[in-house]
Amino acid sequence: MPWYIWLLIALVLGSVVAGLLRLRNTADKMPISKEKLELMRKHNEEMEEAERKEEE
Question: How far is it, in rounded angstroms, from Cα 38 to Cα 23?
Fold first, then answer.
């Protein structure tokens, strides 16, 4: 392959890796209150129970 194709491949891979690294570095954790976390756990338990009843 010609040299400019290799250069283009290197640029594309470099920009993909740089984009992923930038995304990882700028990602923030989402603080969730204890009340909402408990509500999500209860909802998950209810959904799992409903799925178990459907399988029977």
Answer: 29
